[in-house]
Design a protein that fits this description.
- The complex is a heterodimer of chains A (310) and B (422).
- By secondary structure, chain A is an alpha/beta fold.
- Chain A is 34% helix and 15% strand.
- In chain A, strand 2, helix 4 and strand 3 form a beta-alpha-beta unit.
- In chain A, helix 2 packs across helix 3 and helix 7 packs antiparallel against helix 8.
- In chain B, strands 7, 8, 9, 11, 12, 13, 15 and 16 form an eight-stranded antiparallel β-sheet that branches.
- By secondary structure, chain B is an alpha+beta fold.
- Chain B has nine helices and 23 strands.
- The chains are: A alpha/beta (310), B alpha+beta (422).
- Chains A and B meet through helix 1, helix 2 and helix 3 of A and helix 2, helix 4, strand 2, helix 5 and strand 9 of B.
Chain lengths: 310, 422
């Protein structure tokens, strides 16, 4: 925790980042203590990098007592994958990859085609199969309640039945910091240690902890095209129609996900300070600005989550 | 960033203007984003509503939007230069008492809304009672829709007097009254010109300035052991004998050199170092998550408690508590067997006796009651298979609160607040 901030607030007071960090560390330790086979979902994106840092801190000087798992759509930003591998090696944790491509190749899921093709929804199947195959009983996710209205309703310890489904109308009451971790065979819990963090908290924490990020979070030149107000990367993975003409723009990514449905934002922010200033002033949510998958309907996230999505 | 965090719960129904108030706080603090507002406007128009329905911002579930009511707790976030806020937006109806209890359990402050035209309702009294039962330290009665009573001081004073009389029967802590119009913004963010007779703070000003640092218990040191860190790194001889007790302070202050007692053994030793991943700290206090190193080797595991020798919680298997029952799949009756989770300790318990059931509207105690059903609250005696290290809930919400779990379904079926340990 920051010594300087403690002085600024006076005796026995903590800054908001210290309070949030303490809460997240408590949650991670609770999982490590009460579950047999937890796993941390890790994409190499900013939220999962914060999660990995929190896990390092929670068990220091011991090693992180669980592996990390990437649900890989195969539609990745190369920079992010390189970064993912480097960071995982540095943390000394085992990386499990749940591959959507393998699911497609094995005929377990069918990929949609055409202009709107996205593997986003197929992640659910790969994720659930990997959870089952590895016998994971708890999976940490980096979702935050400020991201989306269905997520605002979700518990920190969110129960999933044997089909991996979330039942929003039948959630376990969650009081104080006493978390119910009990499950039967084949059921699991999704745990969201940074539920109470906002996007700005995440960035402030990245700055405070001096966390390294994949380069695509910072402004760079990229060939993009516009679809529905979202700037998508010009890539062989996305089918463009004749009106969608690519152009070069200085952009950065505010979120990092599947390349085919994650949009870039125009930005010249090359330093963390610039990004924080940008986020503080923005009038559009990160998912609204950058995620094509949430635009399908008002309840798109709720529907995906019911099926077992992150 | 040196902001602190205020967690507050809002209680009241849609009719009282709760969602409008939250919408106003979020909007005026620039925490509603354009795309969210656009989505809400589109939906409002599609549903044929005359005004933009800000309740759609907080009612995140399909079922809630369909029924036009809040079913479950939603958490919302906003910040001003003074403070960061976490709102637990809780439903007001009787059938969602358990959700309000959930939202209040972590709140520093609760806002209860009443409609100035209707005055105190049964549900306002219930909300006030639940707030005090959960020991929320600060309570604000927001008298809303003042515009519809011509900003009448008399009407405000009338409601204030009526509520004060009721609150005196409760154990209401710090009580504040604010006359507002959430719709027009009177006294929400800034003081209203329509009510010059009101000399208090605007609601937001109160939220920004209410003093919460001293609400935490900094007297009674309580460290529930959560996890034992034993690194076993063969290449690092310094870590060979490392045995750290990780956990989050639930009260009091601990410093290196302090004499401490371990429960259940009763053995004493001293704190040698207090560590975090950022290094050694000179002291630990709630809610810090730290790792303690002790001078002597004692057999300590998860679920144990570290405290000061002359200030220990009760070590008891017989506990009397107020219990809120949270399931409709079974009832709480004498001899019901359950699992209790209290701090980091889990044990089996049996209900020995239901002393009375409390009517949450009239506060009448029914001593003839033989069960608690969903959303009912009663005073219960429990016998645990293992000793628990408990404080009265009024002294410490962490070491005085527990959950009850049904062993057959694994569902959380009750929440308990310790009244006394025998």
């Amino acid at each position: 925790m920051g010594q300087a901030s403690q002085q600024a607030l006076g005796r026995y007071q903590l800054s908001q980042l210290d309070v949030l960090e303490a809460e997240s560390i408590f949650i991670m330790r609770e999982v490590a203590a009460e579950f047999e086979r937890p796993v941390l979902l890790f994409s190499g994106g900013k939220d999962s990098l914060v999660m990995l840092r929190l896990a390092e801190k929670a068990f220091w000087p011991g090693a992180i007592p669980f592996p990390v798992m990437h649900v890989d759509t195969g539609h990745n930003f190369e920079e992010v994958i390189d970064f993912r591998d480097r960071r995982v090696a540095e943390a000394g944790v085992r990386l499990v990859i749940a591959s959507v491509q393998e699911q497609i190749d094995a005929g377990k899921v069918v990929e949609s085609t055409g202009r709107w093709a996205s593997r986003n929804r197929l992640q659910t199947s790969a994720l659930l199969e990997a959870i089952e195959e590895n016998g994971f009983d708890a999976a940490f996710g980096g979702a935050r309640r400020d991201e989306e209205k269905a997520r605002a309703k979700e518990r920190v310890f969110s129960f999933r039945d044997e089909f991996g489904q979330w039942d929003p109308k039948n959630q376990r009451p969650e009081l104080w910091n006493v978390y119910n971790t009990r499950i039967d065979r084949d059921e699991h819990i999704r745990v969201f240690p940074i539920s109470n963090w906002t996007e700005l908290d995440v960035w402030e924490y990245i700055k405070r902890e001096r966390l390294e990020l994949p380069s695509i979070y910072y402004a760079h030149e990229r060939s993009v095209f516009e679809r529905d107000g979202i700037l998508l990367a010009d890539s062989p993975l996305i089918q463009r129609d004749e009106t969608e003409v690519p152009f070069t723009e200085t952009v950065r990514y505010r979120t990092v996900g599947d390349l085919t449905c994650t949009g870039a934002v125009k930005s010249t922010a090359v330093e963390l300070e610039d990004i924080i200033a940008e986020i503080a002033a923005t009038r559009i949510t990160e998912r609204g600005q950058t995620r094509a998958d949430d635009r399908a309907s008002e309840a798109a996230m709720e529907d995906r989550k019911r099926e077992g999505y992150f | 960033m040196t902001n602190d965090i205020l967690r507050f719960a809002t209680a009241g129904s849609v009719d009282d203007g709760k969602s409008t108030l939250i919408g106003r706080l979020l909007y005026d603090s620039k925490s509603i984003f354009e795309d969210q507002l656009d989505a809400v406007e589109r939906t409002s128009v599609a549903r044929g509503e005359e005004q933009t329905n800000l309740a759609l911002l907080t009612d995140g579930l399909r079922a809630e939007r369909e029924q036009g009511i809040t079913i479950d707790v939603a958490y919302r976030y906003f910040a001003t230069p003074q403070r960061t806020f976490i709102i637990a937006d809780t439903p007001g109806h009787l059938q969602y008492t358990r959700n309000m209890v959930t939202g209040a359990s972590t709140a520093d402050l609760a806002i209860i809304l009443v409609d100035a035209r209707k005055g105190l309702q049964e549900q306002s009294r219930r909300h006030a009672f639940l707030t005090t039962l959960l020991q929320v330290p600060h309570l604000v009665l927001a008298v809303n829709k003042m515009d519809l009573v011509d900003y009448s001081q008399d009407r405000f004073e009338e409601i204030k007097a009526e509520f004060s009389e009721f609150a005196a029967k409760l154990d209401a802590p710090d009580l504040t009254f604010v006359p507002i119009s959430a719709l027009h913004g009177d006294n929400v963010v800034s003081r209203s010109e329509n009510m010059p007779w009101y000399t208090g703070s605007s609601l937001l000003h109160h939220l920004e300035n209410v003093h919460i640092a001293s609400d935490r218990n900094l007297i009674d040191a309580r460290f529930p052991v959560q996890y034992v860190i034993r690194p076993h790194k063969s290449d690092d001889p310094e870590l060979h004998d490392y045995r750290g007790y990780a956990g989050q302070l639930a009260g009091g202050v601990l410093k290196p050199g302090d004499e401490v007692t371990h429960l259940p053994s009763g053995l004493s030793t001293r704190v040698s170092r207090i560590l975090t991943a950022d290094g050694e700290v000179p002291q630990a206090f709630s809610p810090m998550s730290v790792t303690l190193l002790l001078e002597d080797e004692i057999d300590i595991s998860r679920g144990d408690m570290i405290c000061r020798p002359n200030n220990t919680p009760a070590v008891s298997q017989d506990i009397e508590a107020m219990v809120c029952w949270m399931t409709d799949t079974r009832k709480l009756t004498p001899r019901t067997k359950l699992i209790v989770k209290h701090t980091t300790r889990t044990a089996k318990v049996m209900v020995k006796d239901l002393r009375y059931r409390l009517d949450v509207n009239s506060l009448h105690r029914d001593e003839q009651a033989d069960h608690l059903a969903l959303n009912e609250i009663g005073r219960v005696r429990l016998r645990s298979t293992q000793p628990l290290f408990v404080d009265e809930y009024a002294k410490n919400r962490q070491t005085g609160g527990f959950i009850l779990i049904d062993e057959a379904t694994n569902v959380t079926v009750g929440a308990g607040m310790v009244v006394k340990a025998e």
